[in-house]
Every structure is written in C-alpha cells, then in structure tokens.
C-alpha cells in the first residue's frame, strides 16, 4: 500500500509514511481492522465515481477526527 502511494506521489515509501499517511491507517490496515468496520459504508446508494474502498476510507477518516 505504501509503495503504491509513494510511486503515485513520486516519493519514497519512507517519506510517504512520515509525511502523507496517517499512522493509524497503516496500523489498522496491517491488523486487518481497516476495512471491516467501515464496510457498512458500501451499503445503499453509491456514486459511480466512488468505490467501496473509497467510501470506507472516508468513513474511517470521519471517525478519527
């Protein structure tokens, strides 16, 4: 995940972890606790331009604010 983000941003994985990715996201992703709690975001009406994973990420970010 970090490698893909780094490649997209033109940075190294270390820079992305330190500067762009909230450590909580990495912790929950590695623990397998990221997607499941927010899977409910995929229910109901969806917008064509938003994937289930994107909706789950938005739910996660709203929850940690």
TrEMBL record:
What's the superkingdom here?
Bacteria
Q: Does the keyword Isomerase apply?
A: yes
Task: Give the protein name, as stated in the record.
Answer: DNA topoisomerase IB
Q: Name one GO molecular function term.
A: DNA binding
Q: Give the record's keywords alphabetically.
A: Isomerase
- Give the source species: Psychrobacter luti
Q: Mind giving the lineage of the organism this protein is from?
A: Bacteria, Pseudomonadati, Pseudomonadota, Gammaproteobacteria, Moraxellales
